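[step 3/7] inverse_fold.run input=structure_tokens len=118
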């Protein structure tokens, strides 16, 4: 579907182009002048380009810091959720009260299979 959209937009762009030779040359000259003006902006406004370069470098450093911070926080919180206090400690005999190890063993809830035969 996206190829169809691209084809439609390109077709509209071509359809809007002028067909008269003089209008085509005028459009070409305006486009060339605009491209030249854009590419020589830093030649005319050097101080602004230097300042923009410094601001861009500061932005990149901040973005890198923010990315590292988000990654570290995500990793740290996922590790904390998996093992909040490390492995569970064994239950002492006092904490079990009067329960024996057989009492703590879960009951089997499946079909019983006889040993030695099917």
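[step 3/7] decode complete -> sequence:
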């Amino acid at each position: 579907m996206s190829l169809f959209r691209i084809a439609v937009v390109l077709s509209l762009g071509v359809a809007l182009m002028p067909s008269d030779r003089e209008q085509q040359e005028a459009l070409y000259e305006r486009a060339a002048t605009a491209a030249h003006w854009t590419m020589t902006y830093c030649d005319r406004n050097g101080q602004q380009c230097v300042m923009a370069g410094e601001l861009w470098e500061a932005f990149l450093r901040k973005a890198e810091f923010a990315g590292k911070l988000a990654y570290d926080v995500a990793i740290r919180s996922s590790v904390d959720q998996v093992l909040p206090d490390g492995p569970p400690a064994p239950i002492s005999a006092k904490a079990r009260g009067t329960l024996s190890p057989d009492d703590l063993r879960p009951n089997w809830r499946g079909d019983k299979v006889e040993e030695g035969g099917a």
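[step 4/7] annotate
The mean pLDDT is 84.
The two ends are 60 Å apart (CA to CA).
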